[in-house]
Write a structure and sequence with these properties.
By secondary structure, the chain is α/β, with parallel strands linked by helices. Helices cover 52% and strands 19% of the residues. It has 13 helices and ten strands. It has an eight-stranded mixed barrel. The radius of gyration is 21 Å and the shape is globular. Bound molecules: ligand C2E and magnesium ion (3 copies). One magnesium ion (MG) binds next to loops. It comes from Desulfuromusa kysingii. This is Diguanylate cyclase (GGDEF) domain-containing protein.
Length: 292
């Protein structure tokens, strides 16, 4: 129906939009108090080295435990947090909570595991990010080499010189950087070689069709080869089937995470996983010493 001959359909749509924007205003208002109300929590997604099958770390993934809606996905509130600027305090909470959790894991299980934390564009561009990260590491006593920050291509392409200098500061500090969702943003190979990063994360959209779609398989294989050429580690996310895992292993992909291994875990499920890792790897303590 067009606006001209359907006056009431126009009203219908505008009424819908009002409800939506009222709802999102309400959510944004509630988001403001969510941290203080302790409604934010982190899930931890295990990451494995594919050759050995060893657990190598976790990615921290935020959820909002909303009093009426239950667990809200980051896809449904991170954009709002980003737009309102709330992502800055939320992101700082994520960094602190994830680092503190990893320090606690290392103290108890003596395993040299890393913690990956997602950054949002606004957080990455914030002038005090480097200082915030330094303070979080100081307060939690986690060694910088165990923290990995996930950034995306589009985040750094805006002001490249400033982004590179920020990345250099992290490198100097000993914090590593991974490019998340690699292949879905503007990729400039020219810049990629200048970025002081250590890892590429192949986006799950390519992994999903691995072995079924020739183009996606070609993209995955190329990213793995690119990583090898640039001396970067490559991790595949979204591994759900044994077939995908086998293909990634064949191509020499270094690491992986996905539902095939585990879903993201709430904090109370970590102990069982880490106990089982330690039983299979009693050398954890010595390895921990080697990495420091
Ligand atoms: P991401 O960083 O690319 O994280 C991977 C997402 O894929 C996670 O969804 C994870 O649960 C999901 N995933 C991993 N393996 C599989 C699999 O095998 N199958 C399927 N179907 N999904 C899998 P999640 O937790 O909903 O997070 C979505 C996005 O929200 C993240 O994408 C990230 O961009 C953002 N995000 C999550 N936590 C944070 C945070 O603390 N800060 C910021 N700025 N963004 C976050
Ligand atoms: Mg990520
Ligand atoms: Mg990703
Ligand atoms: Mg993704």
């Amino acid at each position: 129906k067009s606006k001209n001959n359907g006056g009431d359909s126009y009203q219908f749509y505008s009424a819908e939009m009002n409800v939506d924007s009222r709802e999102s205003l309400l959510l944004e208002h509630q988001l403001r108090d969510a941290l203080e109300q302790k409604q934010m929590l982190l899930y931890y997604h295990p990451q494995y080295e594919l050759k050995s099958g060893q657990l190598v770390g976790f990615e921290a993934l935020i959820r909002w435990n909303h009093p009426e809606l239950g667990l809200v996905s980051p896809l449904d509130f991170i954009p709002m947090a980003e737009e309102s600027g709330l992502i800055v305090p939320i992101g700082e909470w994520v960094l602190y909570t994830a680092c503190k959790q990893m320090k606690a894991i290392q103290d108890k299980w003596k395993l040299p595991l890393t913690m990956a934390v997602n950054l949002s564009p606004r957080q990455f561009l914030h002038p005090s990010l480097v200082q915030t990260v330094a303070e979080v590491l100081y307060r939690t006593k986690l060694k910088p080499c165990f923290l990995e920050l996930e950034i995306t291509e589009s985040m750094v392409m805006g002001d490249i010189d400033q982004s590179i200098s920020k990345m250099n500061e992290f490198e100097k500090m000993g914090v590593s950087l991974a490019i998340d969702d690699f292949g879905t943003g503007y990729s400039s190979l020219e810049y990629l070689k200048k970025f002081p990063i250590t890892k590429l994360k192949i986006d799950q959209s390519f992994v999903r069709e691995l072995g079924r779609d020739d183009n996606d398989s070609a993209i995955v294989n190329s990213v793995i080869a690119l990583g090898k050429g640039l001396n970067l580690r490559v991790i595949a996310e979204g591994i759900e089937t044994v077939e995908q895992l086998d293909l990634l292993r064949q191509e020499g992909c270094d690491e992986g995470q996905g539902y095939l291994f585990s879903k993201p875990l709430p904090v109370n499920a970590l102990s069982a996983l880490l106990d089982s890792v330690l039983i299979n790897n009693p050398e954890g303590l010595t390895q921990m010493g080697q990495k420091s």
